[in-house]
Amino acid sequence: TTVLLLNGPNLGILGDREPEIYGYDTVDDIAKAVAEEVAEAGWEVVPIQDDHEGNLVQAVHAHRKSTVGAIVNPGALMMAGWSLRDALAAYPAPWIEVHLSNVWAREQFRHESILAPLAGGVVVGLGAFGYRLAARALLHLCDAQPA
Ligand code: DQA
Fold first, then answer.
1. Does ipTM exceed 0.95?
2. Residue-level pLDDT, tens digit, the chain, 147 residues
3. Is 63 marked active-site?
4. Organism's domain of life (predicted)?
5. Domains of the chain
6. The pTM is what?
Protein backbone atom coordinates (compact mmCIF):
# COMPACT_ATOMS: atom_id res chain seq x y z
CA THR A 1 0.00 0.00 0.00
CA THR A 2 1.49 3.27 -1.14
CA VAL A 3 1.02 6.99 -0.57
CA LEU A 4 2.12 9.64 -3.06
CA LEU A 5 4.06 12.65 -1.68
CA LEU A 6 4.20 15.55 -4.13
CA ASN A 7 6.28 18.66 -3.56
CA GLY A 8 6.05 21.34 -6.22
CA PRO A 9 8.22 24.21 -7.46
CA ASN A 10 11.00 25.60 -5.26
CA LEU A 11 10.57 22.93 -2.61
CA GLY A 12 13.67 21.04 -3.76
CA ILE A 13 15.82 23.64 -2.04
CA LEU A 14 13.98 23.42 1.28
CA GLY A 15 16.36 23.72 4.20
CA ASP A 16 18.22 26.45 2.35
CA ARG A 17 15.21 28.39 1.07
CA GLU A 18 14.16 31.30 3.27
CA PRO A 19 14.50 29.08 6.36
CA GLU A 20 12.92 31.75 8.58
CA ILE A 21 9.71 31.07 6.61
CA TYR A 22 10.03 27.42 5.58
CA GLY A 23 12.28 25.94 8.25
CA TYR A 24 15.43 23.84 8.00
CA ASP A 25 14.01 20.45 7.02
CA THR A 26 14.84 19.27 3.50
CA VAL A 27 12.46 17.42 1.15
CA ASP A 28 14.34 14.24 2.04
CA ASP A 29 13.75 14.87 5.76
CA ILE A 30 10.08 15.37 4.95
CA ALA A 31 9.89 12.17 2.89
CA LYS A 32 11.46 10.28 5.79
CA ALA A 33 8.98 11.76 8.28
CA VAL A 34 6.02 10.76 6.07
CA ALA A 35 7.51 7.29 5.56
CA GLU A 36 7.82 6.94 9.35
CA GLU A 37 4.17 7.87 9.92
CA VAL A 38 2.70 5.56 7.27
CA ALA A 39 5.02 2.68 8.25
CA GLU A 40 2.74 2.33 11.26
CA ALA A 41 0.20 0.77 8.92
CA GLY A 42 2.87 -1.04 6.89
CA TRP A 43 2.51 1.50 4.07
CA GLU A 44 5.16 3.06 1.89
CA VAL A 45 5.66 6.47 0.32
CA VAL A 46 6.63 7.52 -3.21
CA PRO A 47 8.23 10.96 -2.79
CA ILE A 48 8.37 13.25 -5.84
CA GLN A 49 9.62 16.82 -6.00
CA ASP A 50 9.42 18.65 -9.31
CA ASP A 51 9.60 22.28 -10.39
CA HIS A 52 7.52 21.68 -13.53
CA GLU A 53 3.75 21.54 -13.43
CA GLY A 54 3.55 19.08 -16.35
CA ASN A 55 5.76 16.61 -14.52
CA LEU A 56 3.57 16.86 -11.43
CA VAL A 57 0.50 16.27 -13.62
CA GLN A 58 2.18 13.17 -15.06
CA ALA A 59 3.13 11.98 -11.58
CA VAL A 60 -0.51 12.22 -10.47
CA HIS A 61 -1.59 10.25 -13.56
CA ALA A 62 1.14 7.64 -13.12
CA HIS A 63 0.13 6.98 -9.52
CA ARG A 64 -3.65 7.33 -9.90
CA LYS A 65 -4.32 3.63 -9.58
CA SER A 66 -1.36 2.51 -7.49
CA THR A 67 -1.70 4.83 -4.48
CA VAL A 68 -4.35 5.02 -1.75
CA GLY A 69 -3.87 8.73 -1.12
CA ALA A 70 -1.58 11.69 -1.63
CA ILE A 71 0.03 14.56 0.25
CA VAL A 72 0.52 17.60 -1.97
CA ASN A 73 2.45 20.79 -1.35
CA PRO A 74 1.88 22.59 -4.65
CA GLY A 75 4.04 25.60 -3.76
CA ALA A 76 3.00 28.59 -5.85
CA LEU A 77 0.88 26.32 -8.08
CA MET A 78 -1.69 26.74 -5.32
CA MET A 79 -2.49 30.08 -6.99
CA ALA A 80 -2.34 29.21 -10.69
CA GLY A 81 -1.84 25.47 -11.26
CA TRP A 82 -4.99 24.78 -13.22
CA SER A 83 -3.69 21.68 -14.97
CA LEU A 84 -2.47 20.26 -11.65
CA ARG A 85 -5.93 21.00 -10.32
CA ASP A 86 -7.53 19.03 -13.15
CA ALA A 87 -5.13 16.12 -12.60
CA LEU A 88 -6.02 16.04 -8.90
CA ALA A 89 -9.73 16.25 -9.75
CA ALA A 90 -9.26 12.97 -11.65
CA TYR A 91 -7.26 11.41 -8.79
CA PRO A 92 -9.64 8.91 -7.22
CA ALA A 93 -8.19 8.68 -3.69
CA PRO A 94 -8.18 11.25 -0.89
CA TRP A 95 -5.37 13.80 -0.81
CA ILE A 96 -4.26 16.43 1.67
CA GLU A 97 -2.84 19.84 0.76
CA VAL A 98 0.07 21.04 2.90
CA HIS A 99 1.72 24.44 3.22
CA LEU A 100 4.68 24.86 5.52
CA SER A 101 3.99 28.53 6.11
CA ASN A 102 0.77 30.13 7.28
CA VAL A 103 -0.23 31.50 3.89
CA TRP A 104 -2.93 33.71 5.44
CA ALA A 105 -0.33 35.53 7.52
CA ARG A 106 1.56 36.40 4.33
CA GLU A 107 0.95 38.35 1.09
CA GLN A 108 -2.59 38.67 -0.21
CA PHE A 109 -1.75 36.69 -3.38
CA ARG A 110 -1.15 33.58 -1.23
CA HIS A 111 -4.53 33.73 0.47
CA GLU A 112 -6.48 31.63 -1.99
CA SER A 113 -5.68 28.11 -3.16
CA ILE A 114 -7.41 26.93 -6.33
CA LEU A 115 -6.63 23.34 -5.30
CA ALA A 116 -7.92 23.39 -1.74
CA PRO A 117 -11.63 22.98 -2.64
CA LEU A 118 -10.76 19.50 -3.99
CA ALA A 119 -8.60 18.43 -1.04
CA GLY A 120 -9.75 16.07 1.69
CA GLY A 121 -8.20 18.57 4.09
CA VAL A 122 -5.56 21.26 4.31
CA VAL A 123 -2.68 21.64 6.79
CA VAL A 124 -1.23 25.13 6.90
CA GLY A 125 1.44 26.92 8.91
CA LEU A 126 2.84 24.05 10.97
CA GLY A 127 6.10 23.64 9.11
CA ALA A 128 7.45 20.19 8.29
CA PHE A 129 5.34 18.73 11.11
CA GLY A 130 2.33 19.47 8.90
CA TYR A 131 3.36 16.63 6.59
CA ARG A 132 3.25 14.19 9.53
CA LEU A 133 -0.24 15.44 10.33
CA ALA A 134 -1.25 15.01 6.68
CA ALA A 135 0.09 11.44 6.71
CA ARG A 136 -1.91 10.69 9.86
CA ALA A 137 -4.98 12.23 8.24
CA LEU A 138 -4.62 9.88 5.26
CA LEU A 139 -4.30 6.87 7.58
CA HIS A 140 -7.47 8.06 9.28
CA LEU A 141 -9.38 8.70 6.02
CA CYS A 142 -8.38 5.26 4.71
CA ASP A 143 -9.24 3.61 8.01
CA ALA A 144 -5.76 2.05 8.12
CA GLN A 145 -5.02 -0.61 10.71
CA PRO A 146 -1.68 -0.99 12.56
CA ALA A 147 0.75 -3.26 10.70
C1 DQA B 1 4.17 27.13 0.26
C2 DQA B 1 3.38 28.45 0.23
C3 DQA B 1 3.28 28.99 -1.18
O4 DQA B 1 2.55 30.21 -1.20
C5 DQA B 1 4.67 29.24 -1.76
O6 DQA B 1 4.55 29.65 -3.10
C7 DQA B 1 5.55 28.05 -1.63
C8 DQA B 1 5.54 27.29 -0.38
C9 DQA B 1 4.39 26.61 1.70
O10 DQA B 1 4.67 25.43 1.85
O11 DQA B 1 4.30 27.39 2.66
O12 DQA B 1 6.34 27.73 -2.54
O13 DQA B 1 3.43 26.15 -0.45
1. yes
2. 999 999 999 999 999 999 999 999 999 999 999 999 999 999 999 999 999 999 999 999 999 999 999 999 999 999 999 999 999 999 999 999 999 999 999 999 999 999 999 999 999 999 999 999 999 999 999 999 999
3. no
4. Bacteria
5. 1-77+122-147 (3.40.50.9100)
6. 0.98
